[in-house]
Amino acid sequence: MEVPEAANVRVRIAPSPTGFAHLGTASTALYNVLFARQSRGTFALRIDDTDQERNRPEYEQLIYESLGWLGLNWDEGPDRGGPYAPYRQSERVDLYRQYAAKLLADGKAYKCFCTAEELEAERRQAQFEKRPYKYSRRCLIDPPKDRTEFAVRFKVPGGEVKFKDMIRGEMVFDADLIGDFILMKSDGFPTYQFASPVDDAAMKISHVIRGEEHLSNTPYQLMIIDALAYERPVAYAHMPLILAKDGAKLSKRKHPESNLMLYREQGYLPEALINYLALLGWNPGTPQEIFTFDELVKVFSFDRVQHAGARFDWEKLNWINGEWIRAMDDAELVRRLRPFLPDLDDATIMRAVPALKTRMVKLADAVPLLDYLWTDPEPPVLEPDAIDRIKAAFAAIQDVRWEPEPLHEALTRVADESGVSRNKTFMPIRLSLTGKKISLPIDYTLALLPKDVAMQRLRRVAG
Ligand code: GLU
Q: SS3 for 338?
C-alpha cells in the first residue's frame, strides 16, 4: 500500500468521555498509532466532549489511563498540548460558532426555528407516507418571523460524495438522499457531525481512521469540509466493528469485555491485548500469531483488514496472554505480578514463577493458586486410605532438601510404590496444604510453604 510522505501524516482518535473506557477505543487507537508510526506521522488525542450532559472528567481520566497502560501514546492531546490546541472540543465552541456564522453568511447554512414537536410531526408524516424522512426545508423557504430560538442547519448541496476508504476502496454516496442536518443546536453547542469535520480540517488530519459505525457519517462531514473550503483528508479507514461472540454489537451494559479496565484488573498483559486487538480485524497473511508492537508496526497494513465485523474470542485472547506470560522474563513477570500479590515478597513470587507459568492464563490467576501461602485453609476430612497416603508422603519428604526437585522425586516414588495413580496420591496432600483441588504442581505447592508450616498442615490431618 502506498505510504504517504513522512511527517505529513496526522491521525487522531476522538473518544467521548461518557462512560468507562471502551475496548473499541483501544482498537481504534491501535490502528491509528500503527499507521502513524509506520509513516513517522503524528497521533493526536482529541476529547469529544460536546455532549454536555453525559461527559465526566473521571471518564476522561480513564481514557488517558487505559491508553497509557496499553502504551498507545499520543503526541498531542489535552494533557500534552500541541500546535492545534485546545484538544478538548468543549474548549473549541467559539471556533464552531465562528464557522457556523460563516456558513450562514455564505448561504450554506440557515437558521431553523422548528420546534421538536414540529419536527416530530414531519417525521411521522413521512413514515405515514412510507417515504424516507428528509427535513422539509420549511425554515429555508419560509422562515417564521416571530421566533427567536434557532438551530443552525446545513443546506445539503446534494450530488455525489466520493472518497477513498483504505479498507473498502472508492466509496460513493448519494447526497440527494441526505436531508439538511443540524450543525449548531439551539443551546449554542455543536453537533458531533459538525464539530468533528471542523476539527479534522483545522487540525490538518490527513487520515481519519475510525470504527465502521461512522462510515455513513463521512459524506456528511466531507460536505462540511468542502463548504468551508478546507482541504479534505487524504483518506478514511473504517475499521470493522468488534462484535460479541454471539455476533451482537458489543454493548457497554451487556458485555463486560467492552470495558478496557477489566483487562488490566484481570491481569491481561498490555502486550498481549495489543497483539490480540491487532489480529481482531486484521490478519498478517502468514501463520504467525504472536506479534510485538514493533513487529506490528512493520507488517500492519490496511489491505489486510477484513470488512466484516470481528467477533471477540476469549479463548484466543487467553491463549495469546498465556503465550506472552510463558515467554516473559521471570524477573519481569514478578514485577507484573507484584500488584496482585500484596501479601507476598518478591523472593517468594520469584520461586513460584516457573510453576505459575505452567498454570496461569492471566496474572490474577496467581491469587487463587498462591493464597494458601498467606491464609490457613480449613483441614479437609479424608477417608482412611487417603490419610495413609499422607502418612507415607510425610515419611518420604521428612528428610529431603526443601526444594521442588527433591520433593518431586520423593513424592513420585511414594506414588509409584502405592499402586494408585500420582493424581490420587497427591490429592489429599494438595487438599491438606491448600484446601483446594486445584493448585500448583505438588512439588511447588510444598516447596513454597516453609517446611514447618507444610509439615504441620499434613500432621494435623494425618495425626
Ligand atoms: N466521539 C466519536 C466516537 O467516539 C468520534 C468518532 C470519530 O472518530 O469521528 O465514536
A: helix
- Report the distance separating Cα 161 and Cα 144, nearest Å: 32
Which residues touch 268 (CB under 8 Å, ≥6 apart)? Answer: 317, 321, 362, 363
Strands 207-211 and 235-239, by their bridges, are parallel
**What residues does 165 pair with on adjacent strands?**
169, 236
Q: Compute how many other C-beta atoms are within 10 angstroms of the C-beta atom of residue 413.
A: 13
Query: Strand, coil or helix: what is 120?
Result: helix
Can you spell out the DSSP letters for 189-210?
PBPHHHHHHHHHHHTT-SEEEE
Structural domains present in the chain? 328-375 (no CATH), 377-463 (1.10.10.350)
Mean pLDDT, range 140-161, rounded to an integer: 97
> Would you state the pLDDT for residue 5?
53
User: Measuring CA to CA, how many Å separate 457 from each of 346, 393, 395, 398?
Assistant: 24, 13, 14, 13
Q: What is the pLDDT of residue 28?
A: 98
What residue owns the CA closest to ligand 1's atom 5? 14
CA 28 to ligand 1: nearest atom: 8
Residue 278 near residue 295, CB atoms below 8 Å = no
What is the C-alpha end-to-end distance of the chain, expressed in Å? Answer: 73
Cβ–Cβ under 8 Å, residues 262 and 22: no
Residue 7 is predicted with a pLDDT of: 52
Which residues are bridge partners to 259 per DSSP? 22
The cell numbers describing 241, all together, are 466493528
Region 173-192: what's the mean pLDDT? 97
CA dihedral 413, 417, 421, 427 (to 10 degrees): -60
The one catalytic residue in 164, 252, 316, 357 is 252
Q: Which of 145-154, 243-252, 316-325, 441-450 has the lowest mean pLDDT?
A: 243-252
Which of 10, 32, 48 maximizes ligand 1 atoms within 8 Å of its Cβ, making it the mutation to test the pocket? Answer: 48
Residue 339 Cα distances to 267, 335, 443, angstroms: 10, 8, 25
Pick the residue whose CA is nearest to atom 3 on ligand 1: 15
Q: Is 424 a catalytic residue?
A: no
Query: How far is the centre of ligand 1, averaged over its atoms, from the C-alpha of 211 (Å)?
Result: 8
Q: Quote the crossing angle between the two packed helices 451-462 and 384-397, to the nearest 10°.
A: 150
**Lookup: cell for 103:** 456558513
- Ligand 1 atom closest to the Cα of residue 208 is 8
Q: How much is the pTM?
A: 0.94
**Residue 432 Cα to chain centre, angstroms:** 41
Are residues 17 and 63 in contact, defined by beta-carbon separation less than 8 angstroms? yes
Residue 13 alpha carbon, nearest atom of ligand 1: 8
